[in-house]
């Protein structure tokens, strides 16, 4: 099943020229994946969620658009029973209403590219908690489905909220970082891609907003937003 949720004022938020200036032309998109194991090359991707964050009129960053899909395991990939027990996913449950990996990624990528274009950003950058795990599984799926030209994401750069939360709050575990940030963390909903992506987006926005209060961002005139 694919789910999409968008703030009613998304077009107005996306037109804010501060968006492309803040992160060198990168649009932050928080991503979380649920998988059937740790190896991106051999274990199936089972769930993906993406949350776009943008600043409001007051310059406060916030989640504004969410995408979520349950995926059918790709043929030939491994389903590790230990991983399925940990995340509680039954890949064959009829109520999952799962879609193919290719269809889910094409739909999400097309929507993200629209926001990227509307903001004037050159590329999306993956934000995640221990982000290299999510990027590795996303890149593996992109390669499997030959979607490199359709992907809006930078192929190797990430913003890692485990690192950012360690700096801001002295905590690297997501639940503890959220607690330190004053965010309610629901353990019963954890390990759902949509929940984890949304709470990670709130954590990321909170850190960015906290930094902005202490050190207001000023765009560098010499920064080249067209290069990687």
User: Care to count the β-strands?
Assistant: 6
Instruction: Assign the CATH superfamily.
Output: Ribonuclease H-like superfamily/Ribonuclease H
Q: What share of residues is helical? A: 25-40%
Indicate the CATH topology: Nucleotidyltransferase, domain 5
As a whole number of angstroms, the C-alpha radius of gyration is 17 Å
| Major sheet characteristics | 6 strands, mixed
Mean pLDDT, to the nearest integer, reads 93
Give a quick summary of the entry.
This protein has a single domain, classed as Nucleotidyltransferase, domain 5, CATH 3.30.420. It is 39% helix and 22% strand. It has helices at residues 10-14, 18-22, 81-87, 101-119, 131-144, 161-169, 174-181, 193-214; strands at 2-6, 26-35, 45-55, 61-70, 123-128, 153-160.
Main attributes of the structure:
six-stranded mixed beta sheet; alpha/beta; globular; Nucleotidyltransferase, domain 5
């Amino acid at each position: 099943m694919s789910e999409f949720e968008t703030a009613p004022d998304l077009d107005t938020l996306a037109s804010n020229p501060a968006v492309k200036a803040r992160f060198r032309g990168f649009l932050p998109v928080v991503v979380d994946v649920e998988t059937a194991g740790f190896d991106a090359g051999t274990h199936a991707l089972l769930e993906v969620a993406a949350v776009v964050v943008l600043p409001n009129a007051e310059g406060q960053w916030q989640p504004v658009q969410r995408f979520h899909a349950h995926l059918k395991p790709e043929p030939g990939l491994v389903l590790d029973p230990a991983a399925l027990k940990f995340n509680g996913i039954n890949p064959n449950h009829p109520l999952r209403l799962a879609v193919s990996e290719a269809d889910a990624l094409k739909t999400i990528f097309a929507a993200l590219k629209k926001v990227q274009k509307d903001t004037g950003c050159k590329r999306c950058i993956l934000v995640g908690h221990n982000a290299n795990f999510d990027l590795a599984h996303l890149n593996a799926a992109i390669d499997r489905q030959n979607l490199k030209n359709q992907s809006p994401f930078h192929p190797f750069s990430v913003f890692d909220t485990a690192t950012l939360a360690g700096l801001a709050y002295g905590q690297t575990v997501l639940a503890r970082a959220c607690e330190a940030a004053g965010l309610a963390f629901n353990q019963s909903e954890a390990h759902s891609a949509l929940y984890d992506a949304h709470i990670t987006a709130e954590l990321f926005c909170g850190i960015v907003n906290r930094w902005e209060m202490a050190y207001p961002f000023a765009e560098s005139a010499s920064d080249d937003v067209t290069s990687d």
